[in-house]
Amino acid sequence: MPKPGIHILNGHFLSLNDKAESTIFKNLLFKLLSKEVKLIDFENAIERIEKNDIPKHECLVAFTFDDGFEECYTKIKPVLDEHNIKAGFFINPNFINGDKSYQENFKNNIVYTYKSPMSWDQVKDLLKEGHIIGSHTMDHHNMNSNDKDFLDYQISESKLYLEEKLSYNCDYFAFPFGTLKHISQKGIDLAKQNYKYIFSQSNYKNYYSFGNKVINRRHFECDWPYKHVLYFLKSKQYG
């Protein structure tokens, strides 16, 4: 059985198999719910972690999705809708805006999948329906750099761009690739100047990293075996 706590599961797509149907995500959630897991909104999960309001008798799970692939809207969102839960979606503006050459390079050499990005209309619809839209940098590059201009463009400019494009305050940032080695201290400091919340995809047994500046998420994908996902729903600790 899963242990009490708050868990943020972070995926990217429904499945690497483009013919997969939303049923696989439905089945995963059904099995988790049968083990008394409770699904909550991503925003609520962050508020509770921030307040140290950690349940002692419930296993709470929230979802985020990185990279902004179209099937997040067409295949994942409908399943979230069925459970009336809101997720976080971290996107790269240049992936959406890029021409064919840019997008092919992004897919083939950066994220290594042939999936296409959401449109801005789809992103706006997610925001309108109450989901969180966060920055994942402009181009999904490794943030383990001390180059001020590079970091400023990828981290600060992506916030400004999203806020202007979507007319909202962007408080959420997840750095690409997600492990703690993929962002420098200078990158963390700059992100903290721009965003209220920063997220990794690493060190999931702890709620925080980088001196409580980074909130940790646990990697999963919607088509992973149920027992594999359940294995990670263990108690967490602060530190």
Summarize, please.
This protein is of the alpha/beta class. It has helices spanning 23-34, 42-50, 70-82, 93-97, 100-110, 120-128, 148-166, 185-194, 226-231, and strands spanning 5-11, 37-39, 59-66, 88-91, 132-135, 172-174, 197-199, 208-209, 214-215, 218-219. It has one domain (5-231): TIM Barrel.
Query: Structural class of the helices, strands and pairings?
Result: alpha/beta
List the uncertain runs: none
Q: How much is the average pLDDT?
A: 95
By DSSP, the count of extended strands is 10
CATH class: Alpha Beta
The largest pleated sheet is described as: 6 strands, parallel
End-to-end Cα distance: 24 Å
- The tally of structural domains comes to 1
Order of helices and strands: EHEHEHEHHHEHEHEEEEH
The proportion of strand residues reads 15-25%
**Helix count from the secondary structure assignment:** 9
**How would you name the CATH homologous superfamily?**
Glycoside hydrolase/deacetylase
CATH architecture: Alpha-Beta Barrel
What percent of the residues sit in helical stretches (DSSP H or I)? Answer: 25-40%
Q: Compute the CA-based radius of gyration.
A: 17 Å
**CATH fold title:** TIM Barrel
Indicate the multimeric state.
Answer: single chain
Q: Globular, elongated, flat, extended or rod-shaped: what is the shape?
A: globular
Brief descriptors of the model:
239 residues; four-stranded mixed sheet; 10 strands; six-stranded parallel sheet
Write the layout of secondary structure elements.
Elements: E1 5-11, H1 23-34, E2 37-39, H2 42-50, E3 59-66, H3 70-82, E4 88-91, H4 93-97, H5 100-110, H6 120-128, E5 132-135, H7 148-166, E6 172-174, H8 185-194, E7 197-199, E8 208-209, E9 214-215, E10 218-219, H9 226-231
Parallel strand pairs: 1-3, 1-10, 2-3, 3-4, 4-5, 6-7, 7-9
Antiparallel strand pairs: 8-9
